[in-house]
Amino acid sequence: MKSPCRLEAGHDTRAFDCGDELLNSFLKKSAWPNQVSKSTFTYVLIEENRVIAYYSLAVGSVIHEEVLAPVSKSGLGKKDITVLRISRLAVDRTKQGQQIGSHMLKDALSRACAIAQNTGIRCVVVDAKNEAAEKFYRQYNFEPWPIDGFCLYLLMKDVRTSLSYTEAN
Ligand SMILES: CC(C)(COP(=O)(O)OP(=O)(O)OC[C@H]1O[C@@H](n2cnc3c(N)ncnc32)[C@H](O)[C@@H]1OP(=O)(O)O)[C@@H](O)C(=O)NCCC(=O)NCCS
User: Fold this and answer.
1) In the chain, how many domains are there?
2) Is the CB of 132 under 6 A from ligand 1?
């Protein structure tokens, strides 16, 4: 399977339909302006210039009081905790069930490892939009975030283990 690449202005997003209007609309209307303003970067899987899957990444922070003990960990003080957020992940309906979602998630986690080599990131957080998406992420050992039913997290150390990622990568 091809590797996802950064969204480009010329990529064709018009026919994309993952079954969720908000996720479709983000790709078609907001992904490019968000990327130009450097607030969220979107990575896409392309077939004949057409986007068939995408995910978006943004660095964010959570306040110390909101997080679980394994995320906050003693020694981190009361500062905000930096996380990498996979804010959206979607596969076109015609391509679902072909391991593309899994391929996109692994790519996002591997990018998280690379980013975490240059900046402190404690965990990856995902916004599961519904119960089905939550089940999808739970298969990859994401745990529910205590304050938000559809938000899940995976500690960076577990991301590295799951990808057998070493600092030499
Ligand atoms: C959720 C989604 C990204 C999964 O992508 P996909 O390409 O269909 O999934 P894959 O083929 O890679 O499946 C990987 C594994 O997850 C499982 N899985 C996929 N979708 C699932 C779902 N909705 N519920 C539970 N498990 C699911 C598959 O059975 C598969 O397991 P296996 O490896 O044991 O066979 C895709 O269905 C989608 O875009 N849905 C609509 C948008 C959405 O809900 N996005 C997620 C929140 S932002």
Assistant:
1) 1
2) yes
Question: What separation in Å is there between the alpha carbon of 104 and the centre of ligand 1?
Answer: 11
Instruction: Provide the whole-model pTM.
Output: 0.90
Cβ of 23 closer than 6 Å to ligand 1, yes or no, is yes
Q: Does the residue 113 lie in any domain?
A: yes
DSSP H or E segment with residue 115: helix 100-116
**pLDDT tens track, the chain, 169 positions:** 999 999 999 999 999 999 999 999 999 999 999 999 999 999 999 999 999 999 999 998 876 666 666 666 656 566 678 889 998 999 999 999 999 999 999 999 999 999 998 888 989 999 888 888 889 999 999 998 776 667 899 999 999 988 876 555 4
Neighbour count for residue 163 (Cβ, 10 Å) = 14
Angstrom distance (rounded) from CA 121 to CA 130: 25
Q: Does any domain span residue 168?
A: no
